[in-house]
Amino acid sequence: MPKTLKCDVLVVGTGIIGSMAALYLQNAGRDVVLLERGDISRGASSGNAGILAFPEIIPIPAPGIMKKAPRWLFDPLGPLSVPPAYAPKIAPWLWRFWRASAERSFRHGLKSLMEINRLAAIEMAHIAAMPELSSFISKTGTLDIYDSEASLNAARRDWDEKEKAGFAFQRVDRNEIEELQPGLAPQFRHAVFSADGLQVSDPYDFTRAIFDLVISRGASLRKGEAQRIDAVGESTIVTLENGDKIDADKVVIACGAWSKKLAATLGNIVPLETERGYNTTLPVGAFNLTRQLYFNDHGFVVTPLSTGIRVGGAVELGGLDLKPNFRRAEAMLKKAERFLPGLKLEGGRQWMGFRPSMPDCLPVIGTARTTPSVIYAFGHGHLGLTQSAATARLVTQMANGDETSISVDPFRPGRFS
Ligand SMILES: Cc1cc2nc3c(=O)[nH]c(=O)nc-3n(C[C@H](O)[C@H](O)[C@H](O)COP(=O)(O)OP(=O)(O)OC[C@H]3O[C@@H](n4cnc5c(N)ncnc54)[C@H](O)[C@@H]3O)c2cc1C
If we measure between CA atoms, which residue out of 220, 250, 219, 252 comes closest to residue 235? Predict the structure, then answer.
C-alpha cells in the first residue's frame, strides 16, 4: 500500500550539492528530509579531483574553442571525445555550446562565473571554519603547467581576466617550479603559481561528512528514486518508484546529471548533458606530490588526497548509458608517468563520473517554471564542489523567500527556452 510522508523541505540527491544545501537549509531552521536512490554521496561528488577552483571563471565555451576542438577530437584518447554512438544525441547541446562561445555570451558567462565563484569562496570559508569540517580543506597552492612559452602566452587573456577579478598568482621559472614541485620532468619550464589554491582532502569523505552532520542534527534520510513531481493545489508531491509519495513544502532537485528527467515532469526542458570524466587514484606514497598540478595542454590534473594521488580529467560527451572506456584513464596515467618520473603506477583504482553540464557552463539555480516551491540546483559541470556552498546559500535564500546574495537570473532554468 503506497504511503505519503509529509515534510518541510525535501532535498533529492545526496551529492555535494544536495548535502550542502541540506546543511544550509538546516542552519536556517528548516526541517530537512534527504532522498537518495543509490549509495549515499557516491555520484560525481565522490570521485572528483577535490579542487576548490574559485579562480576558474573562464567559461569553457570561449571564442575560438570550436577551432581547437577538432584537433582534440582527432585523438581518440585525447582530452575531448564524442563516442560515435552518441554524436547525433549530443549535437543540439554542442550547437548551444557553440552559440555560448560568441564574444557577448562569453562575457556574460565570465561575469556570472565570477560572481558565483566569489560568493563560493566566501561561503566555503565559513564551511572551512566549522570544527566538524575544517580538517577537510587545506591551502596547498596550485601549479598550472604549460608545455611551452607559446602555450602560456596563448592563455594570457584568461590570466588577465583572473587578475582583474582579484585572484592572485605569479609566473614561475624552472628553478621555482622545481622548488614548488620537486621531481617534475625537466621539460616543464613555464608555469603559473596560485598560492591560495585550496584542496579538499578527499571529496567523498568531505561530502559524506556533511551528509552525516546534517543527519546527526536531526535530518532524516529516505531511500528511493524520485520519479515525478506534481503540484496539487498548495502541495508539491514527489512520487517515488514504489508509488510512495512525499508531500513537501519545498523540494530541492539536486540529482546532478540525472536531474533533467525530473525537471521535465514539471514542464522544464533543460539542455542538461553529461561530460564524463575519468581518473585513477594511486595509493598514498605513489609520488611525493606537494600540491595540485594542472597540465593545461593535456586536459588533466594530478591532486594530492588523503586517500592517494588522483590523476584524471578529460571530457567524454557520451551520455548516461554508454559503458565507460577506461583506456582514457590509462592514457592520462601514462602521460602522468612521463611528466612525474618515478610515479608508482601499481595499485590504482579507476573511476568514471558524470559531470552535470549545461552548454553555457553555468549551473541551474532557480525555481521551476510553474511551481515556485520546487528549486533546481544542478548542472554545475566542472565546478560542483567549488560552487556547492554558494549554491546552498542561494537555494536557502530562495526557499525562505529572502533576497539572494547575487542575482540568480544567469542561472535560471528557462534560459535556453
Ligand atoms: C573527473 C572529474 C573531476 C572533477 N573535479 C572537480 C574538482 O576538482 N572541483 C570541482 O569543483 N568539481 C569537480 N568535478 C565536478 C563535480 O564533481 C560535480 O560538478 C559535482 O560532483 C556535482 O554534484 P551533484 O551533487 O550535483 O551530483 P552528484 O554527486 O552526481 O549527486 C547526485 C545524486 O543524486 C542522486 N539521484 C539522481 N537521481 C535521483 C532520483 N531521481 N531520486 C533520488 N536520487 C537521485 C544520485 O544517486 C546521486 O547520489 C569533477 C568531475 C569529474 C567527473
Answer: 250
Nearest to 206 by CA among 392, 22, 46, 355: 46
Q: Which of 12, 46, 48 to mutate to test the pocket of ligand 1 (most atoms within 8 A of CB)?
A: 48
Please tell me the pTM assigned to this model.
Answer: 0.98
Beta-sheet pairing, 4-12 with 32-36: parallel
Residue 382 DSSP one-character state: G
The answer to whether 176 and 193 are in contact (CB under 8 A) is yes
State the DSSP H helix or E strand holding residue 377, giving kind and residue range, or none if neither: strand 374-378
pLDDT in tens, 33-68: 999 999 999 999 999 999 999 999 999 999 988 777
CA 52 to chain centre: 10
Ranges under pLDDT 50 in the chain: none
CA dist 154 to 158, 219, 412, Å?
A: 9, 49, 33
Quick one: which atom of ligand 1 is closest to the CA of 275?
53
Using a 6 Å CB cutoff, which residues line ligand 1? 12-18, 35-38, 43-45, 48-51, 53, 225-226, 254-256, 258, 262, 277, 279, 312, 353, 355-356, 378, 380-386
- Quick: pLDDT tens for 213-226: 999 999 999 999 99
- Nearest alpha carbon to residue 20 among 45, 2, 51, 3: 45
CA angle 240–218–45, rounded 5-degree value:
60
